[in-house]
Design brief:
By secondary structure, the protein is mainly α. Helices cover about 65% and strands about 5% of the residues.
Length: about 375
Amino acid sequence: MLAALGIQTVLAFIFLGFVFNLAALHAWIERKQSALMQDRIGANRAWITLPWKWALPINWILMPFNKLGLFHPIADAIKMFTKEDYIPPSGNKFLHTLAPCLSLFFALVGFAAIPFGNTIEIGGRVISLQVANINVALLYIFAMASMGVYGVVLAGFSSNNNYAVLGGLRASSQMLSYEIAIGLTVMGVVMIYGSLNLQELVRAQGNYLLGWLPLWGVVVQPVGFLLFLAAGIAETKRIPYDAPEGESEIIGYFVEYSGMKFGMFFFTDYLETIMIASLATTLFFGGWQVPYLMDAGFHFPWGQAISLSPLLVSLLQILSFVLKVLFFCWLFMTIRWTLPRFRYDQLLKLGWHYMFPIALANVFVTAIILLVIEGM
């Protein structure tokens, strides 16, 4: 029992370490990617140079990192830790402090149910590469995500600021509206693979259509995948759905936050982006699956086989999951710097008048197709 608990703890630290570092790098990625797309200089003002003569070799080593701006996230962290923690005199101090903690906590706990690999054997013990193997993992993740709305609402109302309240109302109505659409989009995947357990759902995507086409979610649910991406970006409150933050309008549920409390909201946005990328990978792009990679190595449709050790197979599966998540993070950043912000009435109209009916129709058509296939 203690050994199993220790293994789960180590898995949690490994996976959360990856998530935390990727979220920290998002600030740098966002600046650099926007600079490349807009043909301008990116974040390059955070330099680390040691003043002593004997440190010249170290400065040469640091030079590429300085030019790339990789120290900028460190400078951001130092700035947020050292800035004054301001609480409005007329605000509720307890709720003002509680709000960012709630948002960050519920953004983090959902990662426990994400499978980042199949299994790995160490010392004769087979370890499932998932922090918590929950039979209803998909429901658990959506439940945790929906609880995050309390942090946003409390941030707006505890600040006792009209602009913050407006941002909180915008965020809560947007999140609740698009949670319904995002729930319907994944129902088609659940109906096809017959499980809410994400590990089992990923393993089911290891089958092949016509003997060569990986039976990933995007193949059997292309409409659901597009709807999931659109609704998922809305859940992260990022452009083109960033009306709750409305920086150019000076409206946002965290308008009265500073220091590390603001940093927690800032960090939560990136964690939510990684969560949506992880879900898109798990539900629609085979999760840790690698095409034609079996337990003993690669087995191609034309008959050729390449034998690999079980450890190498496990590492390739983990690498596959990481690369897919990175791809979706890049895609979300590209969308952010390409599309303009929706007006708020347009945002809600898109969710209720278009995405919800299409998602409902997708579930209905999926059910009919499954009934026809079972009846054949």
